[in-house]
Design goal:
The chain is an alpha+beta fold. The chain is built from 10 helices and 12 strands. Helix 6 packs antiparallel against helix 7.
């Protein structure tokens, strides 16, 4: 049974779906790749916090019950990396109202720059500098700028500079919550009930594959994907969808006034995974633990949340039991519906196998303890 905190207000998501449909989705190729940087998980934050607690064991309440003195301590290199990642988190505005306020400030500064240029004001240089400093607090913008700088450095064969820009891009990417969705999620697929999906990344494309299945899109197949590529100054087609504005009630519930979204593709099929096709869709981000995906043409949306370990285990066990039941049914149906049209052919083959085994024993090629011999087009293979 899922907790009530996992379920969303239907009216809330109905409003989101209406907002999504206002904007069309451009073509998006399945599993499209880009010059993306391999991701690193937010799990390191927890590792870092754990090491901090271990280093200061005098204040760790777990010492009362467990002896942590024998745990391996992080090396100096790892400590430096943890501190560097902590500095990166403090550098960038976090997803939510802080980020939206930062981007509103950027809009105001951009307008101020245009007005200053138009009237020939003396503060153009200062405004440009203020815009640059503000952009450096937006991880998504920095990610795109560093990728552009990396591409330019590679074109000019400046390998050291390209490597530095690549690291900067990776550090910025690590702070974007939608590049840290890797792992298992659970969502309700209508009448088919709750299903598990596993999220991975191919470049800047998020890929969600079914872990548990239904009669339309089976386990192992992609259920949806989303293009998370940042805006690129070097890519003329780069664009982003406007955020969804939430009502005052919804804003209080979710702690944010806006929701970011990305264009994507959702897969649909008929029973038995027949006539599968990709439909335009959008992925809507709520927070680190919740998001939704909408199949736009069919007006269908699924909300996803992080399942507890207990729920994961239960759903995986049920999925495995379902597979066993299906296989048992198939085998039983096969026995019940066995056709005897080729019985004579099968009988002749079995007789040849017995004859091959008997002849091999009589010729001393194998002994009586051997399993059997198989007759295959005049050739005999005996198993000892």
């Amino acid at each position: 049974m899922l907790s009530t905190g996992f379920l969303l207000n239907a009216k809330f998501f109905a409003c989101i779906l209406v907002s999504i449909q206002v904007y069309s989705v451009s073509s998006f190729a399945p599993q499209r790749c880009s010059n993306a940087i391999p991701r690193r998980s937010f799990a390191r934050r927890r590792i870092f916090e754990m090491h901090l607690k271990i280093d200061d064991s005098s204040e760790d309440p777990r010492q009362l019950e467990f002896d942590l003195s024998d745990l391996p301590q992080p090396t100096d290199i790892r400590k430096q990396r943890f501190l560097r990642e902590e500095e990166n988190r403090e550098r960038y505005a976090q997803y939510g109202n802080d980020l939206w306020e930062l981007r509103n400030l950027l809009k105001d500064l951009s307008k101020k720059l245009i007005d200053s240029i138009a009237i020939g004001a003396d503060n153009v240089k200062e405004v440009r500098q203020e815009i640059w400093e503000t952009e450096q607090k937006d991880a998504n913008i920095v990610y795109g700028l560093e990728l552009d700088a990396m591409d330019k450095a590679l074109e000019e064969e400046r390998e050291d500079d390209a490597r530095e820009h690549r690291n900067n891009a990776r550090n910025a990417r690590d702070q974007l919550i939608y590049f840290n969705y890797e792992g298992l999620w659970v969502g309700k697929y209508g009448d088919y009930g709750f299903e598990l999906v596993n999220i991975t990344y191919t470049g800047d494309t998020l890929i969600a594959r079914k872990v548990t299945d239904d009669s339309t899109v089976p386990a192992g197949e992609i259920t949806f994907q989303a293009d998370l590529a940042p805006p690129r100054h070097s890519k003329s087609l780069s664009k982003s969808l406007p955020n969804i504005k939430l009502s005052e009630t919804a804003s209080k519930r979710w702690g944010t006034t806006e929701l970011k979204r990305f264009e994507g593709l959702g897969q649909v099929a008929e029973e038995g995974f027949v006539k599968s096709q990709w439909l335009e869709g959008q992925m809507v981000l709520i927070n680190e633990e919740n998001f939704s995906f909408a199949w736009l043409p069919i007006n269908y949306q699924i909300f996803f949340g992080r399942p507890s370990p207990e729920l994961q285990l239960k759903m995986l066990e049920e999925a495995e039991k379902k597979k066993v039941d299906v296989m048992n049914n198939i085998m039983q149906q096969g026995i019940d519906t066995l056709s005897f049209e080729n019985a004579d052919v099968e009988k002749d083959y079995v007789v040849k196998c017995f004859d091959a085994t008997r002849n091999a024993i009589e010729d001393g090629l194998i002994d009586d303890y051997s399993e059997s011999c198989i007759f295959v087009e005049e050739d005999v293979c005996c198993f000892e």
